[in-house]
Amino acid sequence: MEKYIEKTMAALEKNGIKPYYLETKDEVVPLVKTLINKGESISNGGSESLKQTGVSALISNGDYDFIDRSKYEGEAVREAYIKAFGCDTYFCSSNAVTERGELYNVDGNSNRVACIVYGPKQVIMVVGKNKIVPDINAAIKRVKEKAAPPNCVRLNIDSACSKLGKCVSLTKENPFMCDGCAADSRICCNYVVSAKQRHKDRIKVIIVNEDLGY
């Protein structure tokens, strides 16, 4: 195990977040199967990491009560989000994980960060080693450079960062965390730092020693 990963896991544990370490993405699904029960309600946030590790395929295979927001349209989408907020297990990734044991996440619609903060009985995050950063300042920069731009491209969002390849705020000398474009389609609207957890081990972070997602 890389020393910085070991340090991060110790900090997560201290902060009440349960860490797991896996060498490869092929080990993720077998571990996840031990953390959830067939028939329980499950939902997820949009995540390339979940797709790359096979978790998306697992939770939608019919063994679980999967709340699939992509199956809803119009006003029913809100109903899906509300159902997901009360589910047994919510899957997502994290935009960044600091070596201090903090989770940093930025959302547009913000149903994902809402579920991370409160609601589902447990939250399971699948995180590649590429998302581990030294501190919050590095996490902020990571989102502006490496997470938001490719996600805008993936979601076909017409934004400044999808054209520039980085957040427009980085053209400033000292960009603030919340600085960004003024587009209505902006995906960086709510900024959440998950630090000390009152409900110990509710959030579980599976760290994979490979690069995953954005």
Task: Describe the overall structure.
By secondary structure, the protein is an alpha/beta fold. 34% of the residues lie in helices and 20% in strands. It has eight helices and ten strands. It has helices at residues 3-14, 28-35, 48-53, 55-59, 76-85, 111-117, 136-154, 160-164, and strands spanning 18-22, 41-44, 65-66, 89-92, 96-98, 103-107, 122-128, 132-133, 190-194, 203-208. The strands form two sheets. It has a six-stranded parallel beta sheet. The protein has a four-stranded mixed beta sheet with strand order 8-5-6-9, sandwiched between helices. Strand 5 and strand 6 form a beta hairpin. It is globular and about 50 Å long.
Low-confidence stretches: none
Beginning-to-end CA distance, first to last residue: 22 Å
Radius of gyration from CA coordinates: 17 Å
Structural class estimated from helices and strands: alpha/beta
Number of strands: 10
Sheet with most strands: 6 strands, parallel
Strand content: 15-25%
Q: Number of DSSP helices?
A: 8
Q: What's a concise summary of this model?
A:
The chain has helices spanning 3-14, 28-35, 48-53, 55-59, 76-85, 111-117, 136-154, 160-164; strands spanning 18-22, 41-44, 65-66, 89-92, 96-98, 103-107, 122-128, 132-133, 190-194, 203-208.
What key attributes describe this structure?
214 residues; globular; 4-stranded mixed sheet; alpha/beta; 8 helices; 6-stranded parallel sheet; 20% strand
Layout of strands and helices, then pairs:
Blueprint: H1 3-14, E1 18-22, H2 28-35, E2 41-44, H3 48-53, H4 55-59, E3 65-66, H5 76-85, E4 89-92, E5 96-98, E6 103-107, H6 111-117, E7 122-128, E8 132-133, H7 136-154, H8 160-164, E9 190-194, E10 203-208
Parallel strand pairs: 1-10, 2-3, 2-4, 4-7, 5-8, 7-10
Antiparallel strand pairs: 5-6, 6-9
